[in-house]
Design brief:
By secondary structure, the chain is α/β, with parallel strands linked by helices. Helices cover about 45% and strands about 20% of the residues. The protein folds into two domains: about 5-85 and about 245-275, ATPase, nucleotide binding domain (Nucleotidyltransferase, domain 5), CATH 3.30.420; about 95-235, 2-Layer Sandwich (Nucleotidyltransferase, domain 5), CATH 3.30.420.40. The strands form two sheets. A five-stranded mixed beta sheet has the order 3-2-1-4-5. A hairpin with a 5-residue loop joins strand 2 and strand 3.
């Protein structure tokens, strides 16, 4: 069995995936990123290997992705998170044409061409109101933890409009709504709708086409998925369970398997696998 690893060093969390040569995930770990990027990449990688019941020498290729990919000294190569996400999303949903990736600090819309290659992409403006951090801050203002966002929004009857174009102004709106006695669930729902509106603007800029695949930590909130689907007027794909957060790491590990096959085809594979480098 040949194993590869994908390490996604995101701005909020670092994810590591160990993949075997029949594309089964045998280990996956997620850790808060913090500011010591080299150390967190190594720790997540080591924990994922332990979870898989393997040794480092068993892993033949490591690919790093994410904003901190250049700090992953344990990787053989690194790829952009756009490339890794495209590979992972397309493997899970082969008809994917447009990807929306909403993380803690970034939002990305990507249009794919044939072969799961990135055709065009757009990133959110440098403002937290266009990222998952805005939802987390809104929840904290109202005394809720991040994990409570999903259940809270599910109890909402009507979203409270939040029109602020930057995090500071939007947060002021949240405070005003609270002072007026608005239901926290409806305020949270309004924050979700506001974030979705920004995501749709990005998707339009890449000339979105179905099928749509949604990934990233914020997409684990079902109401976020439902609002996007409603706004698009179309069904959307979402990786099951926590895989929605591991899609880029999974894609990086898939690219590692692809790289090994190319090495084997060129005659370098046997020697490469033997070194485990």
């Amino acid at each position: 069995m040949i194993y590869t690893a994908g390490i996604d060093i995101g701005s909020t969390y670092t994810k590591a995936v160990i993949l075997n040569d029949v594309n089964e995930i045998v280990g996956r770990v997620m850790e808060p990123t913090g500011f010591k990027l080299t150390e967190i990449a190594e720790r997540a990688y080591e924990k994922s290997i332990d979870q898989a019941g393997l040794e480092k020498a068993d892993v033949s290729y490591v690919i790093a992705t994410g904003f901190g990919r250049h700090q992953a000294q344990i990787s053989d190569v690194h790829v952009t998170d756009l490339t890794a996400a495209a590979r992972g999303a397309s493997f899970l949903f082969p008809e994917t044409q447009t990807i929306l990736d909403v993380g803690g600090q970034t939002m990305k819309a990507t249009r794919l061409s044939d072969g799961a290659k990135v055709k065009s992409f757009r990133l959110n403006d440098k403002c937290a109101a266009g990222t998952g951090a805005f939802l987390e801050k809104t929840a904290r203002y109202m005394g809720y933890e991040t994990q409570e966002i999903g259940p809270l929004v599910e109890t909402s009857k009507t979203p409270v409009p939040i029109s602020g174009v930057c995090a500071v102004f939007a947060e002021s709106e949240v405070i005003n709504h609270l002072s007026e006695g608005m239901d926290p669930a409806d305020i949270m729902h309004g924050a979700v709708v506001s974030l979705v509106d920004r995501s749709l603007q990005l998707m339009k800029r890449v000339r979105m086409e179905p099928e749509f695949t949604l990934i990233g930590g914020i997409l684990r909130f079902r109401r976020m998925v439902d609002v996007i689907s409603e706004k698009l007027g179309a069904d959307v794909n979402v990786p099951p369970g926590d895989l929605v957060q591991f899609t880029s790491a999974f894609g990086a590990a898939l690219l590692g398997q692809r790289r090994l096959k190319k090495l084997a085809a060129s005659g370098a594979g046997t020697e490469y696998q033997a070194t485990g480098s």
